Amino acid sequence: MIQWDMMTRYIVDLIDILIVSYIIYRMLVLLRGTRAVQLLQGVFVLIIFWLVSKFMHLSTVRWLIQNLFSVGLLAVIIIFQPELRKALEQLGRGGIFFNRRRQFQHKLVTRITTEISKAAAHLSKRQIGALIVIERETGLSDYIETGILLEARLTSELLKNIFLPNTPLHDGAVIIRDGQIMAAGCYLPLSENPFISKELGTRHRAGLGLSEISDAVIVIVSEETGTISVVTHGRIERGFTEEQLNLRLLRELKKPAKNRNRLGTFLLRKEKEGTADE
User: Fold this and answer.
1) Are the CB atoms for 174 and 143 separated by under 8 Å?
2) Of 178, 212, 23, the residue nearest 102 (C-alpha)
3) Cβ distance 120 to 113 under 8 Å?
4) Which one, out of 49, 174, 221, 237, has a CA that is 20 to 30 A from the CA of 164?
5) Which parts of the chain span the membrane according to its record (predicted)?
6) How would you classify the pairing of strands 235-238 and 276-277?
7) Domain residue ranges of the chain, discontinuous segments joined by +
8) Domain 106-277 classification at class level
9) Are 115 and 154 in contact (CB under 8 A)?
10) Contact 42, 48 (CB under 8 A)
11) pLDDT at residue 213, as a whole number
12) pTM higher than 0.70, yes or no?
């Protein structure tokens, strides 16, 4: 009887640990790619300092850090109010525990890829530069806030008009979420990779920079050459036609998250020899 009670207790403790671990994991996924990542890094640094001060008996430093933690909770609520609101909204939809938000339906994926491919081909023929971002699991709200909020239905005609030269929104990136153009004229972080080809301009560096910190799919049209490129996971593939771009985006948005990078690159190389992968 005692052994049975102990076994039951172990099972309950294991379930408890697994539930807490999964909640922490989903929260980290939710915060990835937002300003809260820097906050977590700062918290870890303070915890390390607190442990060192406790080990070395630095009472003043320990007192200071403990007071920072007590006051910092209110500051976090004020500063990161948008992220907290987003987390509560996803909790209400089950988005923290069940990853449903980025599970695109077949019809939606087809519409997204078709509209983007048509617009990219049109802009490519006229050598009009474009930077189009498709949000997936990593939240891009921080970058959406840097642009002009649209929340408009995604159409190729709207994309063409946004990137027309000398229009208010042609500079910067368009960010797409769930088949909607959330914002235009958005600023993206530039990649600091020293091995990027010198022939790539600011649009390509911005696309690479965002892909290095998120799982977004980025479509770039070069203003100088009209070349269409796709950027994922810090890698750029160039030289797409409209049909090839449509197939590439379909494959990228439909396949499982674990196999997105390697499988997509392998199939693309087999299917299209003319694409240069940098």
Assistant:
1) no
2) 178
3) no
4) 237
5) 6-25, 37-57, 63-80
6) antiparallel
7) 2-93, 106-277
8) alpha beta
9) yes
10) no
11) 85
12) no
b/e sequence 149-179, b meaning 16+ C-beta within 10 Å: ebeeebebebbbebbeeeeebbbbbbbbbeb
Task: Please answer whether residues 79 and 122 qualify as being in contact, where contact means their C-beta atoms are separated by less than 8 angstroms.
Answer: no
CA 201/CA 127 separation, integer angstroms = 14
Q: What is the DSSP string of 214-225?
A: S--EEEEE-TTT
The answer for residues whose C-beta is within 8 angstroms of residue 278's C-beta and 6 or more apart is: 196, 197, 235, 236, 237, 238
Backbone angles phi, psi at 61, to 5 degrees: -65, -40
- From first to last of its 278 residues, the chain has per-residue pLDDT tens of 667 777 788 888 888 888 888 877 777 766 665 556 666 777 778 788 888 888 888 888 878 877 777 777 677 667 666 666 656 655 654 554 544 444 446 788 889 999 999 999 999 999 999 999 999 888 888 899 999 999 999 999 999 999 998 888 888 999 999 889 999 999 998 887 777 877 788 899 999 999 888 889 999 999 999 999 999 988 899 999 999 999 999 988 886 544 444 333 333 343 344 433 33
Owner of token pair 């020899």: 273
233: its two tokens: 């996971």
Exposed/middle/buried for 17, CB within 10 Å: 0-12, 13-18, 19+? exposed
Match 């007071």 to its residue by tokens. 67
Measured in whole angstroms, the distance separating CA 6 from the mean position of its chain's CA atoms is: 44
The predicted pLDDT at position 114 comes to 94
Local structure of 31: helix, strand or coil: helix
Beta bridge partners of 173: 186
